[in-house]
Every structure is written in C-alpha cells, then in structure tokens.
Amino acid sequence: MSFFTTILLFGFASAQKVIQLSYCSIDEDHLRMDCKYSLPSESSEVFCKYTHGERLFDTTDPSEEQHAPFKKRAKARIFPGNICRLLYKNLPNGKSTFTCNIKVGDSAPVTKTSVVEKKLLLPCSAWSVLLQSCSGLLLTLMTFPMLLEIHWL
Questions:
Q1: 20 C-beta neighbours (distance < 10 Å), count
Q2: Which segment of the chain is annotated as a signal peptide (predicted)?
Q3: 86 with 50: CB under 8 angstroms?
C-alpha cells in the first residue's frame, strides 16, 4: 500500500502546474498577460496557449491554428523563467475571460482562468506586477512603517 501511495505522491509532485496568472495594460487598449508555470525536472517541449472558451487567441504550438479574428491582435510567447506571455491588442470594454493552457509532451494540459475588466487594469510597471503577484510582500511593506510609528509613540 505504501508503494502505491509513494507512486501517487511522486506523480502529483512531478506534474506541471500553472502557478500564477497576472495581467496589466501596456497602452490604454492593450493587455499583457503572464502565465507562470512549473515543470517536472524531466520535461519535453512546452507549449502554451491562451483561449476564450473554444476560441484560440494564440499558441506556441505550430500544429494548432489561431482563431482568424485574433491573427493580428494576439501573440503568445514563452519567456525564460517558465512564463508564457500574451500580448493582446484592442481589449474590448467590459469583462473578458482568458485561460492559460500549459502542455508538456503527451501529458494533459493544465489551465488557469482569469476575468479581466478593462477599466480596472493597472498599467504595466514593476510596481503593478508586484501588487498582483506579491500580496504578502505588499502587506509586509505596508505593515513595517506602521510598526515603526507605533514604536516611536
């Protein structure tokens, strides 16, 4: 029984997963979305794609075809540090749903979905990415000055 449990735990621990999905605006109407993922130590080629339901914004997999309306509006690329980035032009007003799909070899893809509301997008900067991705760090940075003020009273 313990052998079976060990195999199951090893299988789950070594699988790829999407860690984080963050986004910001490049210009007033353009979206940048970063999908950070982890990979097993022995991994083959990685493909990523962004979808909205059945519609494909873009993919790094040459065997899949991009949905026609997005050919000049969306571009997905893989960057060092296990990041799949989508650049999307002319984001419509209102809410839009984006799903990041990561696929390694013959394994099942892993996904993460986020709803983006255009009017709430922060401009891309180191600070906006920090706010989205490091809430614990932000809490620490905000708490530290308060602790100093209390100490001086």
A1: 14
A2: 1-15
A3: yes
- Beginning with the edge strand found earlier in the chain, give each strand of the sheet holding 17-25 in spatial order: 17-25, 31-38, 83-88, 74-79
Q: Cα(22)–Cα(121) distance, rounded to whole angstroms? A: 11
Alpha carbons 126 and 75: distance in angstroms, whole number: 22
Would the CA dihedral through 45, 51, 54, 58 be positive or negative?
negative
CB-count exposure of residue 128 (10 Å: 0-12, 13-18, 19+): middle
51 neighbors 142 (Cβ within 8 angstroms): no
How do residues 1-51 score in pLDDT, each as one tens digit? 444 333 333 444 446 788 899 999 998 889 999 999 988 777 778 999 999
